[in-house]
Amino acid sequence: MKAVILKDKVKMGGKIAPLYYEDVEIPKPGQGEVLIRLRTASLNRRDVFIRYGAYPGIVVPSIPGSDGAGIIEKLGEGVQGLEIGNEVIINPAIGWGDNPSFPSPSFSVLGVPMDGTYAQYIKIPAENVFPKPKHLTWEEAAAIPLGGLTAYRAVVTKGTVKPGDTVIIPGIGGGVATFALQIASAKGAKVFVTSSSDKKIENAIAMGAAGGVNYRSENWVKELKTLSGGADLSIDSIGGDTFNDLIHLAKHGSKIVSFGATLGPVNNLVMPRIFFKQMHIMGTTMGTPDEFADMITLFEDKQLRPVIDKIYPLQDIDEAHRQMDHGNLFGKIVLSIPE
């Protein structure tokens, strides 16, 4: 089969590791596993960060890629409830464990060190395979898993979003942020966004956001406070000074759920602003199998469709990663897998 291979580890802060598009053996499903003929895959920033050496436990050679959708081709011994020919979507959260509050020590994300979805075939534990929503194209199905799961846990499980809540999502445009907007809106919340791009704000409003502000404006925090009335819930992937701005925007008794820190550490944090507002600040990443199932059900019930920015053939993986690393994206980058 054709696959994209990561062969080299690099030190964080150095050059990006190359990828190789090569022929490798088709994997054989073992006990409790299925073999899937992948139709599509999609990119996450995790994939690029791994090439920069920014994740622990990198093992080479490995096939990257966390998101994918395809057709079951073989069943390993002991697999029940699935059939050859089923159209499926993959949950990339491997081995979460029994505690819904946090993952087990053996938890991992699909795609390095476990071979991932940048390939024509993948073997995967049967428990990580779910029916593909019928209303979605192959490209849309592959776009959902990691970003949709992360957003669902942040907004619904940790954020306990309710109809009428005001939700603020800074830095709209990335995959998880756009999923958070869709999920919060589907749950009846009023969503406000920020971006450095007026076009992205317009796109977000077209998706259901109630409004947004350009954070390059000198008084954007005051403007957003006036526009939104303050946040019942903020979904943050930015960190840095933006986290302090979200505290300023927060209502009393509100929540901030954090899943990233693209601006780095939060400096000059004034603790009384948190405890006098009786705030709840929570961290989250990925999610449980039940949350994945509930997320897929929400997409089916509300007929939600992920936003796709670009589609590339698998062999153009270098260009796809360049766009992920440097491009001005709104939504997901998807890979079509050759027959």
Contiguous low-pLDDT stretches (5 residues minimum) are none
Fraction in beta strands? 25-35%
Give the proportion of residues in helices.
Answer: 25-40%
The CATH architecture of the largest domain can be given as: Alpha-Beta Complex
The description of the largest β-sheet is: 7 strands, mixed
Whole-number mean pLDDT:
96
Shape: globular
Query: Could you tell me how far the N terminus lies from the C terminus, measured between alpha carbons in angstroms?
Result: 10 Å
Order of helices and strands: EEEHEEEEEEHHEHEHEHEHEHEHEHE
Protein model, in words:
The longest helix is centred in the middle third of the chain and has 14 residues. The protein has 339 residues and is of the alpha/beta class. Strands 3, 4, 5, 8, 9, 16 and 17 form a seven-stranded mixed beta sheet that branches. The chain has a six-stranded parallel beta sheet with strand order 12-11-10-13-14-15, sandwiched between helices. The termini are close together. Helix 3 packs across helix 4. It folds into two domains: 174 residues, Medium-chain alcohol dehydrogenases, catalytic domain (Quinone Oxidoreductase, Chain A, domain 1, Alpha-Beta Complex); 135 residues, Rossmann fold. The chain contains ten helices and 17 strands.
